[in-house]
Recover the amino acids of this structure.
């Protein structure tokens, strides 16, 4: 069965510093995708970044990068140069690409950026 | 484009009542999903669909039903509402793009009292 684990319920980071949010996953499927979404206090879900299991390079999108370590089954999100607007909940998610594209989410990490 | 539209935005139900949460998308996406999010928690998959006429159970399907008669619509039916179904419900859709990202609706806040 698929499972997403995010072991950091809450994180603090100083403004302009980098921060890493941890995500580990479990799946027996050979083909899958990993996402990160941001949910600010307003509640909307904002797509940040995607990594396919067969992608050779780690994904990057602006200040966001995904540190993908397939053998360790980890997909950590790195946010560089944190901004006050980065304060939000962050969710790691996994998409099964071999069986009906089921998508499950982890429990989330609350990030607070300190001025 | 409106994207993913959910109605209603808020609803209060009495225990034992039934209702349908509506979700429609105008992006011709084949994949659609229903999630629930309890306060301070992550999203739990209720049901999902890979296309019209095809649905499957997610992680927490009990107490819910879905149908997918068209590509655009994916309604979620709550039968015999219970306080445990108090939650925020999100509908999402996606297509087979390289990014595979999900487009989310704005959510429905449901309280069962």
């Amino acid at each position: 069965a698929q499972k997403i684990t995010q072991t950091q319920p809450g994180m603090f980071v100083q403004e302009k510093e980098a921060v890493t949010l941890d995500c580990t996953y479990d799946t027996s499927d050979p083909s899958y995708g990993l996402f990160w979404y941001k949910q600010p206090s307003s509640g909307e879900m904002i797509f940040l970044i995607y990594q396919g299991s067969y992608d050779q390079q780690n994904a990057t999108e602006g200040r966001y990068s995904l540190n993908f370590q397939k053998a360790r089954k980890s997909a950590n999100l790195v946010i560089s140069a944190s901004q006050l607007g980065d304060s939000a909940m962050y969710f790691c998610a996994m998409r099964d690409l071999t069986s009906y594209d089921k998508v499950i989410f982890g429990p989330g990490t609350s990030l607070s950026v300190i001025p | 484009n409106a994207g993913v539209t959910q109605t209603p935005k808020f609803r209060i139900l009495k225990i034992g009542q039934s209702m349908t949460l509506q979700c429609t998308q105008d992006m011709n996406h084949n994949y659609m999903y229903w999630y629930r999010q309890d306060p301070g928690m992550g999203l739990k998959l209720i049901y999902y669909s890979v296309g019209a006429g095809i649905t499957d159970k997610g992680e927490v399907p009990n107490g819910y039903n879905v149908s997918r008669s068209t590509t655009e619509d994916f309604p979620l039916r709550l039968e015999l509402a219970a306080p445990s179904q108090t939650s925020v419900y999100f509908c999402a859709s996606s297509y087979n793009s390289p990014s595979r990202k999900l487009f989310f609706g704005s959510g429905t806040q449901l309280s069962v009292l």
Observations:
- Residues 32 and 79 of chain A are 23 Å apart (CA to CA).
- The mean pLDDT of chain A is 95.
- Chain A touches chain B through 23 residues (CB under 8 Å).
- The radius of gyration of chain A is 14 Å.
